[in-house]
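User: Predict the structure for this protein chain, please.
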Amino acid sequence: MRTLAATHQNSILVSWVKAFGHALDAAGHDGSALLAEAGFDLGHLGGPDTRCPLTKTGKLWDLALETTRDEAFGVKLASYFTHTTFHSLGYGLSASSTLKEAFERVLHYSHVVSDAVGYRFFRVGAEYHFYIEPRIEIPIESVDTLVGVYLRMCRSLIGRNFSPLSIELRRPRPVALDDFERLWRAPLRFSAEHNRLRFDSESIECVVDSGNPEVARLSDAVSARYLARIERHNMEARVRTVLTQRLQHGEPTQEEVAEILNVSARTLQRKLGDSGTTFRRILDETRHAQALAHLSVPHVSVSEITHLLGFSCSASFTRAFRRWTGLTPSEWRAVSGSRSVHAPPRQPPGSVDRYG
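Assistant: Here is the predicted structure, written as structure tokens:
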């Protein structure tokens, strides 16, 4: 088991593992025995801050699917998660004033739970699209669980009858669809290009009575402190931080970032490769996340955002933004509608706008 001081990379909160055991028990199997077979010592799972390597959870998935022989086990697993399963992030999601705010909170703080998956979320016309993008190889059923988790989040905030416009998954079509259709209640598409949930903008932007900005702010502060502790040795996170700080001074090179981090360019490239990413990808993702945050602030001009993101000219920024969203910055701003009550503020120099 990994303690908080251990490396965070490719890890997950142990509370997720505990929920897994409860789901196996409910399915009529010995969850404790299966967790032990996967390498988890139930007597020493640790407290809410404890993390475990995803290699062990991969084995747990194999054992669970072999034992249950249930293609929809991942779908059902989502119902065994509560807001406490996700540390401080869970409280922030529960206190969000809109679904838009909740999904933006996922973008910023999802690494509190695990760094195995990245997310994208933005408006396209009258819809919002939420992408689930694994950064490493994970079981397809774990994506099913994530879909279920975020649907439950939506329904807890705006009503149990809510459903997305559609759910698209890269996974093959299951043989039996009954549980997928019963629990998700949305048009399904399998063998899709992306893992994507499509939502109507009215539901996503609707202000909910249960929102509590003060609780949300406090949970965000706890999440930020937790991430700062667990990602001290995470090279990918360190690179994102440097890029966020330096972009407004022009696009930094990999060699320049390596020098700031006091490592060689070769070492930086190797460590990023070990985590399944590249410098160019992190640069692109950081710019994408920053662009959406800046464009959400009406008074910040496209030319100013071009400078803040380190692009040489507005045309370069527009080409990149069209690749990310299919729209120009001006088009995206025009269709993005009113901001949520607590949309991300303009980031001051040195702050970190988390992506995934």
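The domain at 234-335 is CATH 1.10.10.60 (Arc Repressor Mutant, subunit A).
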